[in-house]
Structures are given as C-alpha cells and as structure tokens.
Amino acid sequence: MSSAFATDEQLAHAPSRYLTYMAVAAAALALLIVIPFFLNSELQIFYLSEGGPVQVFSAAAYLVVTTMLIREMDGAALREYWFLPVIPLAMCLREMDFHAHFTTYSITKTLLYVSPEVALAEKIFGVFVFAVLGVAGYLLVARCGKAFLHGLRSLDIACLAVAAAIISAVASKALDGAASNLGFLGIDVQSTLLSVVFEEVLELGIPVFLAIAVFAYFDRRQPAPRSFNAR
Questions:
Q1: Is the pTM of this model over 0.90?
Q2: How confident is the model at residue 10, as a pLDDT?
Q3: In the chain, which residue ranges form alpha helices assigned H by DSSP?
C-alpha cells in the first residue's frame, strides 16, 4: 500500500460486483425490517432492545470498518487520516453504550456538565471526547469532502456506498423518537412499531454500507491479476 491515499488519477473504479453487494445489503436490511412483524411481542422487544441482535450486528459492522481501515492504511496514512478509523470506532462504542458506562450521566447529557455532584474529571473526560470527535468530523469534511463529491459525480462505487450510509443515518435520525412524539399526539404507541423497526435497522445500514465502501475503495487500488493484464 502507498503511504497515503492515492489520487483519483491513480485509481481504477471498484469492481462492479460491489453494486451487487449494495443491492444484497439493501435486500437484507429490508428483510430485517419485516422479520419482527412475524414475532411475538416478547421477541419483538428482544429484537429491538439494547444488546439485541440488530444492535450487536451494528457494533460488529463498525468494528469491521475500523479494523479494515487500520489494516489497509500504513503508518503515514494513519497519521494523516487518523480520523477515519476513529469515527467508526466511536460509533461502535456508542452502539455499545460506552458513552454512559464510565460517567455518572451519559456524556451526551447536559446534566453531566452542569451538575455539582459530578466530579470534575468526568466533565473533562466528556469535553475531551467531544473535542476529539469534533476535530475528527471537521477533518473528515475538510480533507475528504471535495473528493467525496467528485466521486459521487463520477458514480464511484465507494462514494455511492458512503452516500447510502449517510442516507441511512439521516433517515434513522429523523425516525428517532417517533414513537414518543406520536404518543404525545395521542396515537397508540403500538402503531409505531414500523417506525421503531425502521429506525433500528437503518442504524444497522450505516456501518453495513460503510463496510462496503471501505472494501470497494481498497479493492480498486489492487492491481489486476497478471493473467488479466496479459489479455
């Protein structure tokens, strides 16, 4: 592997089979949306619960993304693009509720930072985590945003897979809390099962499509087999 990411001119498009992988992933996610409607209420709760199969698969997929990035990026690339493995790792830890395991309150809760009962060290820890993620997010957009948009215009498969992950993230966020909002409007919570299922499965779609993007990106940097080049 090169010491940094190759330029667009040095890269061939990823093999078209990754479009098939994206279609299979979309079909699998659709199946996961349908499954809970054939389960009894107890199994539905387990299926969508914290630590249930959907959440476990999400965390595992984020680990695949992180591991693949670290494996394929050499030292120079990791130093320059350290934020790429950090972001999916943070999302994996979020899926496993690590944001609430080591502090009195979740680091996403304002109460952690304003409560006089919370130790200063915990507040500093929360600020540090958000600072690192904030820098990582800024660098992601600043260093990769232009190339991502260019890849979308050229229909690069890796960029299309990232776009699918972004769409999954936006859609799942839009559905987040839909059950409570509808309940507030007087709609029976039971009628919101579909929105809850969609939210959880779309969250799984984020790392699944990111994994496809990572594999597609690094696959397109591999030279074709000698026998193929000889044709």
A1: no
A2: 42
A3: 17-34, 41-48, 53-72, 75-80, 83-95, 111-114, 120-153, 157-175, 178-184, 193-220, 226-229
